[in-house]
TrEMBL record, chain A:
GO terms for molecular function: sarcosine oxidase activity. It comes from the Bacteria. It comes from Amycolatopsis jiangsuensis. This is Heterotetrameric sarcosine oxidase delta subunit. One of its GO terms (biological process) is tetrahydrofolate metabolic process.
Automatic annotation (TrEMBL), chain B:
GO terms for molecular function: nucleotide binding; sarcosine oxidase activity. SUPFAM superfamilies: FAD-linked reductases, C-terminal domain, FAD/NAD(P)-binding domain. Pfam families: DAO. It comes from Amycolatopsis jiangsuensis. NCBIfam families: soxB (TIGR01373). This is Sarcosine oxidase subunit beta. One of its GO terms (biological process) is tetrahydrofolate metabolic process. Belongs to the SoxB family. The lineage of its organism: Bacteria, Bacillati, Actinomycetota, Actinomycetes, Pseudonocardiales.
Amino acid sequence: MQLIHCPWCGPREEVEFHYGGQAEVAYPDDPAALSDREWAEFVFYRDNPKGPFAERWSHATGCRKWFNAVRDTRTYEFLATYRVGDPVPAVVRRHQEVSA
Amino acid sequence: MSTPGAHLPEHPDFLWRNPEPRKTYDVVIIGGGGHGLATAHYLAKNHGITNVAVLEKGWLAGGNMARNTTLIRSNYLWDESAAIYEHSLKLWEGLEEDLGYPILFSQRGVLNLAHTEQDVRDSVRRVEANKLNGVDAEWVSPEQVKEICPIVNISGDIRYPVQGATYQPRAGIAKHDYVAWGFARRADEAGIDLIQDCEVTGFTVDGDRVTGVRTSRGDIGAGTVALCAAGHTSVLLEMLGVRTPLQSHPLQALVSELLKPVHPTIVMSNAVHVYVSQAHKGELVMGAGVDAYNGYGQRGAFHIIERQMAAAVELFPVFARAHLLRSWAGIVDVTPDASPIVGHTPYENVFVNSGWGTGGFKATPGIGWCYAHTIAHGEPHPYVAPFALDRFVTGALVDEHGAAAVAH
Ligand SMILES: Cc1cc2nc3c(=O)[nH]c(=O)nc-3n(C[C@H](O)[C@H](O)[C@H](O)COP(=O)(O)OP(=O)(O)OC[C@H]3O[C@@H](n4cnc5c(N)ncnc54)[C@H](O)[C@@H]3O)c2cc1C
Ligand SMILES: [Zn+2]
């Protein structure tokens, strides 16, 4: 089991958290203008990288807040966690460049 | 009763050549798991296509094929699913003869338990749907569950009491390694090259056509490319700029120490997230649902196992003193509707077979048969046509969550 760093509560055990899939999937600006393919992409398609992945987690049995994390899907290591709206931490950007 | 395992055949000698890759093949299959090997076999057997290579990045059938819990059944809800899984089950019933190789297919039946009123309604509905599709299925009471599998706890005092079950008597298990080796031997005999330690790292492309694959052992030309890479499909298609609605997750399983025969059938429960069978040698083989997060690490988290064990011990109090021998994980590719993606890609000579998630072992002969047909004719076999990638745009989903998502 991993310790996951909640940006509000600090390090807590993995069982306290709930996984929420890919981060930063924005609701369409103009929904009525979307084609069927664009709707399919919005509803069903998510990235599935082998390597660093920006994703959403919620501290379900703690503060119950959602936050973002960048986790390496090969090792499961959390490279960073940060509050929604904050920029992706620099350490992660460097890591992504190295593994690209 | 005889000693468990006494009837297991000896481990075979090497069953296939280990050839150097040739410069080019009519068909290159990426992934040497059960699906890739079965596809190779039926390409040769049903279509006479033998200028074929199966490229495997690790060792033959060392991916999910080596890691799954081998449950075989066809009691899926929708017509499209029942058709392909029942086609597969019929092939399993004659597979030992076809392959000329023991696969220890044991039709011991499966019980899918219902624990709530809604479970009961859904289960009875599925039984009726199965019957309409010619799939053997019946609804059984808790007392009948106890007759079929005496160690199930049917007491009303547990957290999720057993309210009954669906029963498919023709369901069963097979020995996964033997299945892979049987297909591999037949494909090799037909002249197909099975190439291990050969990772596909990219593609060579000319317009709408792929001309070959780049591999850790050099470039290989291909008339047709057929993906059978299970958890790695999206990674491969990404290299071609093709997106798929697939997510790769760890899926764990475990076995107990060897025990005397105590568990005569297969018992599954979606509601409490555990399923169990007893292997030929005597281990209790158990699995649960996927770990929640995406991953490629071929391992999972222990708290999932803890939850699954709690459910198992409540349902089977006799397991409380069994020791865990080992646990492991595979990487499975799941889709939004819990059904596979098979057929065309935007590249006219690249075909995809993926998204079998937690339940593709049972499909092995069936998909091999239909995928070989799809490759040979350049058109989807009718049994796989409903599983095209474009269903996520048209909305014609085959939503099998109830029959497939957790259980296998
Ligand atoms: C723990 C667990 C339990 C399961 N239980 C059941 C069950 O009881 N019943 C059931 O029906 N199904 C079950 N499944 C699902 C089943 O195992 C899979 O759906 C099925 O094996 C997928 O098809 P495959 O056999 O071809 O995949 P795999 O055996 O995974 O084959 C894919 C192959 O592709 C190779 N590959 C990947 N990328 C590349 C590359 N770039 N180049 C070359 N090769 C590559 C991999 O190494 C791998 O060998 C289970 C799976 C797991 C993990
Ligand atoms: Zn918190």
